[in-house]
Backbone:
């Protein structure tokens, strides 16, 4: 079976008859940063990690883990004492009745996302998933210090009188707008990550 750029089996991208709508919201970031994803129920937590990374605009260079009802899931090749994230599908989560769980990216910066299972629906066009269909606000940049560092970064770029303003703006780039979000660009990134046409 062909592999996607994310290393997942290409058959999983369109293989489910049920699509799961999930909303992932960053904790401790105000105003909220969130993404709504539609994924086939056959996708695993490992696939969800890739979809969140793409939709948020992150590159996946840090460790991650899921906390599902107190049980840790992740990549056992990189983390100790975790269940294998490739073994739990979204359909499995649905069967368990768990409505929400936590996804943490970058165990140093500690970007915690509350992931809410919103609903399921039939998949009229299986080739269209996974997809990012909505969201709010720009993703915080990698390595900015987590929610607290990001709050400091936003304060610095908002106030030209602050001594660190020029350095922070240069580090971010002049084009960074914390309020911006382009759903079409986010969905295109998801499509690229999964080799979706």
Residues:
């Amino acid at each position: 079976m062909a592999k996607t750029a994310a290393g997942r089996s290409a058959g999983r991208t369109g293989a489910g008859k049920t699509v799961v709508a999930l909303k992932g919201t960053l904790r401790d970031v105000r105003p909220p940063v969130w993404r709504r994803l539609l994924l086939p129920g056959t996708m695993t937590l490992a696939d969800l990690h890739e979809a969140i990374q793409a939709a948020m605009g992150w590159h996946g260079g840090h460790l991650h883990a899921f906390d599902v009802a107190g049980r840790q899931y992740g990549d056992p090749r990189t983390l100790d004492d975790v269940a294998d994230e490739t073994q739990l599908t979204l359909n499995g989560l649905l069967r368990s009745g768990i409505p929400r769980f936590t996804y943490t990216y970058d165990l140093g910066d500690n970007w915690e996302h509350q992931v809410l299972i919103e609903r399921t629906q039939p998949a009229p066009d299986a080739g269209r998933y996974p997809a990012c269909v909505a969201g709010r606000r720009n993703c915080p940049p990698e390595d900015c210090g987590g929610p607290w560092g990001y709050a400091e970064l936003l304060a610095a770029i908002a106030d030209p009188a602050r001594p660190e303003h020029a350095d922070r703006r240069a580090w971010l780039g002049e084009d960074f707008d914390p309020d911006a979000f382009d759903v079409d660009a986010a969905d295109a990134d998801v499509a690229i990550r999964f080799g979706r046409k």
Q: What stands out?
A: The beta strands are 18-26, 34-40, 64-68, 71-74, 83-84, 100-105, 111-122, 131-136. The first strand starts at residue 18 and ends at 26.
